[in-house]
Each structure stands twice: as structure tokens, then as C-alpha cells.
Amino acid sequence: MAKKIYLKPTLVTVLTLVALYAGFTVFLSHPPPSVSTLSDPSSSRSLSILNSGDPKKTTVRVYMYDLPKRFTYGVIESYLRARGTPNAPFRYPGTQHSAEWWLFADLLREVRLNSPVVRVLDPKEADLFYVPFFSSLSLVVNPIRASNFGNGHVYSDEEMQQELIDWLENQEYWERNKGRDHVFVCQDPNALYRVLDRIKNAVLLVSDFGRLRADQASFVKDVVLPYSHRINSFNGDVGVEGRKSLLFFMGNRYRKEGGKIRDTLFQILEEEEDVIIKHGTQSRESRRMATQGMHTSKFCLHPAGDTPSACRLFDAIVSLCVPVIVSDFIELPFEDAIDYTKIAIFVDSASAIQPGYLTSMLGGISEEAIVQYQRELKMVKRYFEYEDVNGTVNEIWRQVSMKLPQIKLMINREKRLVKRNMTSPDCSCVCSNHSSSVGPLF
């Protein structure tokens, strides 16, 4: 009996040692990544680890083209030379259309924890191809001061657009799927306007669809971006104690197209008590005054401009100044994650231009309701902060990654389509813009 009891623990000990040996052997054959492996940019596996805390959760792989310098850093150099400041500190200028810089800089970072996409250096591994042309900055490079460029050269954005597409059309991966799996930033409403018909298959990152045809852009394939806010964020707490003005607006009074409503609103509101409405253009002093006004007002007016959207809306959001949106055709970023009716008040144009309507409606909103709007604004504020590591950039990449199933569908569908005679464009789009007033919710 004693012998039997003695054999039992001996057997257990032997089995335990065998298991430990097997585990140790597996460990040696699959060692954890070393520091040198993680920092080796030539390893796509190392990039997966650097790009995400959990590589298994990241499935969308992005290849960023190594464009000729003239399309990236060269645009910044041309901008500085055009303004007669070639020796100024080399940096992307602060503009409302700076998404192109933030996305470019993000993909260049060595460590990109929690990013929704993985950057790969081998195009064969890529799901999507990012084209990092600074299209919005290129648009505003001054073409007049030829002497600043030397040798009589005048910068031409139109030539740059043409050269970019000529370069792309010689790339294997562009031709493979006719650009459907490529991504462009054209945040300024006029960015890449000369070549839009040649890139309309691609994913376009835009501020709105105001100047785009239905066969060029749609919610199905494209992503709406927030403008970069141009005033300082409000870092205080919610509350109305320091917000003495009911309604604030500062911007260009005279705009084209849908923005003509601004002049009408000026006429109606400039004599109203408790309303601050000022004509102003982009300048350092205007931004200072706008910061002061938005940080001390309960509501901030956002009327349509030359296009339905503008950076003023995002200035208001980061100021915790409840936006009052008078823009019937506006489209907004990240609406799958944000319910804008909780952070803004929407008023149709016909109602907004009725004398007394806006001030009466806003004046009837309780302080408790205003504070609730502010709480909601504070909760979503990070979505509009490009500099936040968990802010706008990551959200843009998440939105882009969500387009991949549709891209694959369209690529596979086109492989089997026969030539068809069609009287209208074959566009996959979502019809919207059936706007209506959305009053206060609280």
C-alpha cells in the first residue's frame, strides 16, 4: 500500500517536468520581439507591433507613397518662398486645412500606439494606398511673386495636380484597381479640382460635398473631415457664469452662393441686445477677438459660407460654445460616433432670417439645458483636436478603414461587369441633405 502511495506523486512529478520542458522549448522557438526588431523599419511585422497595442485587432494596412519631394516638403518650401520668408522655421503653416499634414506626420511616426491602421513599407502587403500630396497648401501658394522663386519660375498648383496624376498613373498599384484603393486629402473645397475626374474612384477626404458632383464623391466611398480649429480651446469647466453674451459670430459678412444668408443675418442681428456679430477676416488679431468672444458666449452662430461648412463650427465646439447651425446642406464628420443634436442646434435658413426668431428661441433655453449641451461638447471635444493622440487623426483613420469592405466589393464587381451603354453616371451614393430644423433637446 505504501508503495502505491509513493508511486502516485512520482508520476505527477514526471508529467510536470515533461510539460515544463515542452513549454520551455516552445518559448525558445518563438522568443518575444527584441528592441532591435521593434525599431527595424524594414520589418512589416515590427510595424504592426509599433502601430497597435494588439496587432490582431488591426487589419487595415496602409502604404504611404514616397512621393517626389516637390509634392510634400517642396510645397512648404514654395509657400515660404512665395511669402518672402525662405529662411523662416521650416514647418507646415497653421491653416484650417491642415489635415493633410497631420495624417502625413502620423504615418511617419515610429511608434503609433492604438492606431486603427497599420503602416506597411511593402506595397504588396497593403490594403490601401495613401497619397500624401499637400493639395490644400499647394492651392494657396502665391503664384504672383515670381522673383521669390528665382529664375523667373512661378509656382502653379494646376501643374502640380497634373504632374501628380501623371506620376501616379505610372504606378503599378494605381493601375491595378484604377485608384479605388487609394486615399487623397482634398480638404480645401477647391483642392485637386483640375484632376477630380481622374481620381474620383479613390477615397476622398473632404470637408463637405458642396462643390463635388454626385459621381465624384459620396458618403459610401468618402470621408468628411473636421477643419482644424483656429482658436485656442476652452479648458475651463462647464457653466454659464462667465458667458455673458447670448450669441456670438465673427467672420466674413459677404460670401457667395449659399453664404449670402450671412448678410441677411447681419442685418437682423446686429441691432439685437445680447448679441455680438462682427465682420472679420483671418488675422492674428481676429483670432484673438474670436477666442474671447466664443469663450464668453453661450451660443455661437455658424451660418453657411461659400461652402456649407467652415472652421468656425469647430472653433465653437472646442470653446464649449453651443453651435447654432444655419446651413441647410451641411455634412458633418464622424456622425456614426457623434449625435450632433446633443451638441448643437440646427435651424433652417427660412426660419433663421425671420426677425426675432433666433434670439427668442435661444433666449428661451434654460441654463440647465445650456450646461447639458456643454457637457456633451466636452465629451466629444477630442474628436476635433488634431494634436490629441487619441483625437482627430485616429478617428479619420478609423473612418477610412471602414471603407475597405466597400472598396473590395467595387473592385470585385468591376472585374465581371461587361461594357454597358448608360445615360447617367453609375455612381454609388447616398442621397441626403433633406435637412430640417432641430430645436433644443434639453
Automatic annotation (TrEMBL):
Localization annotation: Golgi apparatus membrane
Keywords noted in UniProt: Glycosyltransferase, Golgi apparatus, Signal-anchor, Transferase, Transmembrane
Major location category of this protein: Golgi
Top-level taxon: Eukaryota
InterPro entries: Exostosin, Exostosin_GT47
Domain Exostosin GT47: 58-359
Lineage: Eukaryota, Viridiplantae, Streptophyta, Embryophyta, Tracheophyta
Pfam families noted in UniProt: Exostosin_GT47
GO cellular component: Golgi membrane
Membrane topology classification: Single-pass type II membrane protein
UniProt protein name: Exostosin GT47 domain-containing protein
Organism listed in the record: Amborella trichopoda
Similarity comment text for this entry: Belongs to the glycosyltransferase 47 family.
Single GO molecular function: glycosyltransferase activity
